[in-house]
């Protein structure tokens, strides 16, 4: 390309064809979060749950364009900062992924806290975040370490058997940790990073079977996360290892904050974990979240502790002439 044509591409006219969105990228235990800090859609007034309804209805292409290829990838979780209705909260947040929206996100909340601290909008200490499924407390310990006091978590059904085509009967628990999970301990799979392709096929088959057989969470909600458990790689660093299949067919690189919350709720209900005792959940990439549970008003409130690291701060550009400006959508 000659110098003349290079200059031609940067005329003020072509710049005016670009919309801009400011983002900060981080990862929590290997799982990425992209926080939209400026340039997001105006979602009006109301609770974060109401703003999510508007986001879903009127701005779903914004979601897809921020996290999907070619700007993002299937594994990326987005976090749109918005105005909280609850005045005790420092911010509101809506989490989203390659196929839709999340109620809560544990690794994402840690990523949001570290991002807000990076921007100087949060300091060491406690603050609150309004999510579509309730308020969570963030405790920033230092520039990377954060604890999240999650929403009340509980088991909806114990030992439910689903017949999975080509696999056979699989028994698990249905539990809520801010998202819906099907938790399986007895699966015959090797929970090892080398085995993620097979684990993805296996868990996706369970997910499809639950959907096809109409097995749902409370209020008929879709169970869109499948979680397998096994022994940790090293019992001195963790109590258990998991593999979590997320709604858009990407597996969680972290131990999954909401999945760990669902697990802790089941352990407490089974009398296998006492309130206040530590549970160290290792994910499939080896990273570990520390969890505890507190019981209040006959409810279980998990706290998840992990670390996030900033990986980028950038401006996403949306060229109005780009056929894939809103992301690659299957045609
Ligand atoms: O950490 O809660 C979590 C989460 C949900 C989906 C991906 N990560």
Write up this protein.
It is built from 7 helices and 16 strands. The protein is an alpha+beta fold and 331 residues long. An 8-stranded mixed beta barrel has the order 1-2-3-4-6-7-8-16, surrounded by 4 helices. The chain is globular, with a radius of gyration of 20 Å. It starts with a helix and ends in a 12-residue tail after the last strand. The N terminus is likely disordered.
Jot down its keywords.
single chain, 331 residues, alpha+beta, eight-stranded mixed beta barrel, 7 helices, globular, disordered N terminus, binds pyrrole-2-carboxylate
Rg over C-alpha atoms, rounded to the nearest angstrom: 20 Å
Shape: globular
Share of helical residues = 10-25%
Number of strands: 16
Work out the strand percent. Answer: 35-45%
Write the layout of secondary structure elements.
Elements lengths: L2 H6 L3 H4 L2 E11 L2 E8 L9 H11 L1 H8 L9 E6 L8 E6 L4 E2 L3 H13 L6 E7 L2 E7 L4 E5 L4 E11 L3 E9 L3 E5 L11 H17 L12 E6 L9 E6 L11 H13 L9 E4 L5 E9 L2 E21 L12
Parallel strand pairs: 2-3, 4-6, 11-12, 13-14
Antiparallel strand pairs: 1-2, 1-16, 3-4, 4-5, 6-7, 7-8, 8-16, 9-10, 10-11, 12-13, 14-15, 15-16
The structure holds pyrrole-2-carboxylate.
The site of pyrrole-2-carboxylate (PYC) has 13 residues, from helix 5 and helix 7.
